[in-house]
Amino acid sequence: MAIECLVLGAGQEVGKSCVVVTINGKRIMFDCGMHMGYDDHRRYPDFSLISKSRDFDHSLDCVIITHFHLDHVGALPYFTEVCGYNGPIYMTYPTKALAPLMLEDFRKVLVDRRGEEEKFTSLHISQCMQKVIAIDLKQTLQVDDDLQIRAYYAGHVLGAAMFYAKVGESAMVYTGDYNMTPDRHLGAAQIDRLELDLLITESTYATTIRDSKYAREREFLKAVHECVAGGGKVLIPTFALGRAQELCILLDDYWERMNLKVPIYFSAGLTIQANMYYKILISWTSQKIKETYATRNAFDFKHVHNFDRSLINAPGPCVLFATPGMISGGFSLEVFKQWAPCEMNLITLPGYCVAGTVGHKLMSGKPTKIVLDSNTQIDVRCQIHQLSFSPHTDSKGIMDLARFLSPKNVILVHGEKPKMVSLKERIQSELRIPCYLPANCDTVHIPSTIYVKAHASNAFIRSCLNPNFRFLKRSKEENSDQGLRNTNSTAPLQVNDERVAEGILIMEKGKKARVVHQDDLLLILRQKKHDIQFGYCCAAHLDNLEETGNRDAAISHSDKCSCLQLLFKELSDYFSGVNIQDLGEHLQVESFQVSVCLKDNCPYRIIDSPQKEAVTVFFCCSWSAADEKLAREIISAIERFNLSDNLPCKNSK
Predict the structure, then answer these.
(1) Beta 140-142 vs 132-135: how paired, if at all?
(2) What domains are defined for the chain?
(3) Would you tell me how many other CB atoms lie within 10 Å of the CB of residue 630?
(4) What does the pLDDT read at residue 469?
(5) Helix (H, G, I), strand (E, B) or coil at 354
(6) Listed range (298-302, 313-317, 369-373, 491-495) with the worst mean pLDDT
(7) Which DSSP state fits 160?
(8) What does the angle CA 387 – CA 282 – CA 271 come to, to the nearest 5 degrees?
(9) CB of 201 within 8 A of CB of 175?
(10) Residues in domain Beta-Casp (predicted)?
(11) Residue 62: Cβ within 10 Å count
C-alpha cells in the first residue's frame, strides 16, 4: 500500500510547517504551524484540503507537534477550537509546557499591540492544550490497534522531537527541526537505526556547511565587545526559547572572564518564564549542563538582568535580547526603530529569518531604509552583523541523517526551493535514494514495500542445500530451429535446479511467519501426502511392427514388448541426453511413464474407435504436475515418429 503525503505548509518554503501523511490507511498531521511572514490567508495552512466537509475528527487519526516554535504550533489553537478538531494531539512534556507561553505572547503582540483580528483567544489556547497527550522520549505509544508512534531527541530547542510512526509493516520518520551537532545548552539529535519507507526532513540549510562553532562564537563575541567598548548598544532579536539561552550562557561566561560591567538585558516577561522552565526541565539539556547542575545552574545568569522599557533611550552601552526573533513585530521591532538610525549601534542576527520579515530584509543586503508600511519608514545606519547560531542542522547533518537511516524515500520540506533542488540531487546521486520536494498543497505518493521476516524450518533449509538438478537436452528439431544442428553435433544440455520451489510460506494470525518444507506441512496439517497424476492414452499406428496374421487380434505379449522396445529406441535417439529407463512393463523418464495399453475401454482414451485398416496400438501415459512440460514433449515426439495419436490422428495405408 502506498504512503501518501499532503504538504499543507513548509513546501519549498520556511514557515507554517504542516504535513498530512496517510500510511496504511492511517492519517497523521505532523505539525500545525503559522507563517510569520504573512498576515493574510497565507498565514495558516489550508485545512479544507484535509476534508471538504471539515469533518476533521474522522479525517485524521492524530496530530503530532514536534516543538513549540510558532511555525510548527502557531495554528494549533485555531485548528482545534475554531475549525473543530477534537482528536488526539501528541507532543513532548516540555513542548506542552512551553507552547502555551509562545502562543499567548504571539496573541498579545498580534491583538493587544498591533490591533489585528483575533484568530484565537487565551481561552482557546487553554482549551487546546487540555486536549494534548504528553509523550516522553523513546516511549512507544499505541495510538490505536494499528498505529504506534515514538519520539526521539532532536536538539534544536528544549523538548524538540523527531517522530517515528509505524502502521503494520510500513514506517516513517518526520524530523521537524533538528540539530546534528551539540551546543552549549542542548545535545545533538539522537535516533535509532530504523527500517523506513519514508524520511521527511527539514532542509533549512540545504546547501550550507557551517564552520567551527568556536570560530563563530569568537566572531560574535568580538563584534559585541567592540560595539559596547565604543559606547554603542547591541540588539539581539531572538525567540525567547532556544537561542536566547544559548547566547546568554555564552555572553555571561565571557563577561565573567573579561570582567565587563556593561549591562546585559532580557526583555521582560516571556524570557523570564522560559528560563524558569529550563531550570525545571534540566534533564532535556546538554550533558555538560546536567553534570554541573549540582554545583551551578547554567540558567542562573550573573550578568543578565530584566529590561525596563524606560531604558530604551537611556545613555550608555548595553546588550539587549528582545523578542520576537526575525524582528517580525513586538518589542524587538520597537527597539529596532529607536536604535537603527545610530551608527554606533549593532543589530546582530543569530538565526534564520523568514522572507517578509525585517530580519530577512537586513540579511539580504545592507539597506539604508526599511519600509514597514505606507506611514512608517526606518533609517538604517547601524551596523548589521549576521552569524549563524541557528539551531537547525546544516547540509552535512541532513546527509548524515539520511545516510544513517537509509530510508527507501526522502521528502524535503522547510527550505528554500533552489537550495532544496541542490540537496535533492545530492541525495539521489550520492545515496541512491529517491527524493521529492513538493510545494504547498502538493501530494506525493510513495510506494510502500512490505517485507515479512519468516522463520525457516530445518527441513526447508536442508532441501535448499541439497542439489535437485534436472538434466534435459534439447530435441534435434529444436536445435535445428535455432540453427545449431549439424550431422555430428549433440544437443546442448539444459540444467535446472528447483530446490527453493519446495518452500511453503505459512502465516497465522498472532504468530510469526514460517517457511516450511512440504513434508513439514503434512505434519502440521496431520495429513498424508496425495500425489496428483495426469493420464493420457494415445493411439498409434506402427509401420515397423510385423503383421500378426489377424490384424484385428489383440496384441500378444511378444508384440507388446516389441512396441516398447521400438518406442524406447526412437525416444532414446530423439532425446539423446535424457535418462530413459526400460523397466520391462513400461518406460520411465522422471515421473513420466508409458506402457502399452491392452484395455478395450481405457478411461484415459479419447478416440472413439481404432482404425481397422492398420495395426493399432495404444500407449498409456501418466505423469505428475511437475513434469507436465516433459510429458508434452515426449507425446509430441511420438507424433513425429509417425506413432500418431488423435491430435491429429495419422493413418498409414
Answers:
(1) unpaired
(2) 3-209+391-446 (3.60.15.10), 213-386 (3.40.50.10890), 453-465+500-529 (no CATH), 533-545+556-640 (3.30.1370)
(3) 19
(4) 63
(5) coil
(6) 491-495
(7) -
(8) 55
(9) yes
(10) 244-362
(11) 20
Cell of 433: 535514494
C-alpha cell at 156: 534544536
pLDDT (tens digit per residue) in 383-441: 998 877 778 899 999 999 999 999 999 999 999 999 999 999 999 999 999 999 999 99
What are the DSSP calls for 460-526, one per residue? Answer: HHHHHHS--EEEEEPPHHHHHHTT---TT--PPEEEEE-GGGGEEEE--TTS-EEEEEHHHHHHHHT
CA 168/CA 146 separation, integer angstroms: 6
Greater confidence, 156 or 544?
A: 156
Catalytic residues: 202
The pLDDT value given to residue 462:
81
Per 3-state DSSP, what percentage of the chain is helix, strand, and coil (rounded to 5)?
A: 30, 25, 45
Strands 346-349 and 318-322: unpaired
Confidence of residue 338 (pLDDT cuts 50, 70, 90): very high
Q: CA-CA distances (angstroms) from residue 189 to 354, 425, 433?
A: 24, 24, 22
Amino acid code (one letter) for 26: K
pLDDT score of 40 more than 60 = yes
What sections of 131-242 are H helices per DSSP?
213-229
225 SS3 class:
helix
Q: How many CA atoms lie within 13 A of 462 on its CB side?
A: 7
Of the listed ranges 173-187, 204-218, 364-378, 541-555, the one predicted with least confidence: 541-555
Q: Which residues contact residue 10 at a Cβ distance below 8 angstroms, ignoring those fewer than 6 apart? A: 16, 17, 18, 19, 31, 33, 71, 202, 413, 414, 440
Percent of the chain residues topping a pLDDT of 70: 85
Say if residue 175's pLDDT is above 90. Answer: yes
